[in-house]
Amino acid sequence: MVEYRIDRRSGVATYVQIVQQTKQALRLGLLEPGDRLPTAREVVEATAINPNTVLKAYRELEREGLVEARRGLGTFVRKSLGSAPADSPLRAELDDWAGRALAAGLEREDAAALFTSVLDKYFTDDHRKGDTE
Amino acid sequence: MTAVSAAPAEASAHHRSLRPRGLLWAMLHLHRAALLFWLLLIAVAGGALLWAYGPGADGAWAEYRMMRCAYSGPNRTCDYTGLSYDVYSRAVSLGSLTVTLVPFLAALWAGAALIGRELESGTAELAWTQSVTPTRWLLAKLTAPAVLLVLGTSLLVLLHRLVWTSNDELRRWMNWDWYVDSAFRANGVVGIAYALLGLAAGALAALLTRRSLPALGIGGGCLAVIVYGLTVLRPHLWPVVTVTRENESPPATGMPVAEGALTSAGARVPPPVCGSRDTCLAERDIVAYYRDFHPSSHFWPLQLVETGIVLALAAVVTGVSFWLLRRRTGAAV
Amino acid sequence: MTDTAIEAAGLGRQFGRRGKWALFDCTFQLPAGSVCAIAGPNGAGKSTLLALVAGLLVPTEGEVTVFGTNPGAARERLAFVAQDKPLYPQLTIAETLRLGHELNPGRWNAAVAEPIVAGGGLDPHARIRNLSGGQRTRVALALALGKRPELLLLDEPMADLDPLARHQLMGVLMADAAENGTTVVMSSHVVAELEDACDHLLLMGGGRVRLAGPLDDLLAAHVLVTGRAGDLGPHTVVESRTTGRQLTALIRPNGPLDAEWQTSEPTLEELVIAHLRSPAAPELTLTGETGTDADTDTDSDSDSDDTHTDETDADAEEAAK
């Protein structure tokens, strides 16, 4: 079971926080296929947020094919998120890149900003609007 | 939490049919203190009257006989009163005084506790946003106390009449006249009507002021004015009986209304101050004396006319209350 | 679900024949199932509006309907908690809840009301007159929710509560909205308090409606721009300030914005404060159907029915186990 923590000051839209935390739980294996997500009622009772926000997040997850709503039963995890394994070649390349950035005298924030800007360039995905909301 | 849900459930199993429900339940629980006070007042005043009817009257009667008041002829001993007489008289007065005061108690209570405080603190609006319309709320607020006022006052009036009519001779000795205000009200339906008027007046005052303290003052004040006005008007609510006599004022029997002298033309003039001079009357053209009064047979006509007026006033005041409430809240019935 | 919970048209209320207009020309619609914040400073007309919707006041002009009928006729379907949380001081908590049972025959659900009271650790036999402000709020909310209202009107519901109780009771309210689709309307002059809980906003100021509509649409209809001081052209300017050469403004864009402006979407607080600081800014009323953010709206309309049913059924199943 996953428990959502809403950070009011993060500037990230609440429903995006739920989407992100669900995905995080999928990546970390806290949620597995077949698990039931908490009902909207359970989430809002614990977090005091608007029920429609939870439903919006669940619809988003459903649209991405991660969960499915089963009529009368609740919302269930359909598939886990393939986390990039620690030993993948991608990770090794990134590791390499970070080492070079450090050698070039970049601060952590500088490196993060660079990384993010490149991510933004490639991953202009559909909940970008939500992120800035 | 379990205690909350368990206790009423058990109670309901036993008294399902007798249990008051809805607004009646609310009335009984919200005004428990007033209900207890009312029951206590009726018990005390009614008890005093019952005592007066039984042992009180026996004691006074024994005292009366012992003092030989029953013998006709001049008997000065009967001008003095004994202990039994005093206690008996006080017990009966307590009954009649209670009937006289109940309308004022009703007005003050209705203005302050029954309605004024609810409007002031917003609990009235709490009730109106349950499944209860303001009209039904006011209806319950007025009906339940009205029923209790009518029942309680009627009981006191019946007991008072019982005491009053049980021994004519004793009553004469006590100098109880039927037309004295407190006795007049405690002996008939008019006392009950005044109680209802008091309730209505207090309620209207509360709806007008929406504050308990001003409502208390205005309700009680207006009732006092009405009661005083009707007391002054009372002798004129039924045609009087007029007796005339040539040489002297006719003797007083019953409720005195007016007296004076008559001229030869039949005009009514104030009684002259003439001493014993015969010429004095002739100079003023006075041929006779008259007296207007109500004999005791007028008791019920006077009672019924005054009761009618008081009930009509109570109805109008209540109607205005409902109209006011409906205009303010746009209440659907 | 897509019914209208509240509809006001030209609604106004004057106190006394020549008195002050506490509310005037108030027009808006609120769809059923929404959670709406009525924001605005003290004296903005929030309480008057709520009292009119609750059927406790008659409008001086205009009309308000609740679920399509006049508020008095919808009395059984709505609950109202007034600002000072009136309760009968002489009753105990248990008696107060019993009052709810007696005055709402056929509607009352003790299983909803009692846990709310118990959640605050309150003794059911305590008298109301001995409770603190926050405890009274809890009992008042229990009384309101126990009635199973379809429309819940709350005037400054959280003012007396400590942060913990505030969070917990807001959670209870939201759970009720999630489970039963209850329409919730709550007023507050502290906007931050309502930001996460509400999906609709009604901003009042000086007795008027300043902003009304779905929160997301209202936010999307405004842009916070910064740049060199210059002409904001065809756009509706809500508020603008110039510091040196830099101009900061909250605008409602009409058409594309110049690329030289730096833009960001305002937060709720920025939106509200900008409007309150500029009483002359034109009002804006958006409805779900004609909103600017048409995509998300049609989306939520078509999906919400199903999902809501699912959740409710799932809960019912759980309860049955």
UniProtKB/TrEMBL annotation, chain A:
HTH gntR-type domain sequence ranges: 12-80
PROSITE patterns: HTH_GNTR
Domain of life: Bacteria
GO molecular function: DNA binding; DNA-binding transcription factor activity
UniProt KW keywords: DNA-binding, Transcription, Transcription regulation
Keyword Signal: no
InterPro entries for this protein: Tscrpt_reg_HTH_GntR, WH-like_DNA-bd_sf, WH_DNA-bd_sf
A Pfam family that the UniProt record links to this protein: GntR
Name of the protein in question: GntR family transcriptional regulator
Organism for this UniProt entry: Streptomyces phyllanthi
From TrEMBL, chain B:
Record field: transmembrane: 33-53, 91-116, 137-164, 184-208, 215-233, 304-325
UniProt KW keywords: Membrane, Transmembrane, Transmembrane helix
Organism: Streptomyces phyllanthi
Coiled-coil region: none
Keyword Glycoprotein attached: no
Name by which UniProt lists this protein: ABC transporter permease
UniProtKB/TrEMBL annotation, chain C:
InterPro entries linked: AAA+_ATPase, ABC_transporter-like_ATP-bd, ABC_transporter-like_CS, ABC_Transporter_VariousFunc, P-loop_NTPase
Region: Disordered, residue numbers: 279-321
One Pfam family, short name: ABC_tran
A GO MF term: ATP binding
Protein name stated in the entry: ABC transporter ATP-binding protein
Biased composition (Acidic residues): 292-304, 312-321
Keywords, in A-Z order: ATP-binding, Nucleotide-binding, Transport
ABC transporter domain: residues covered: 6-231
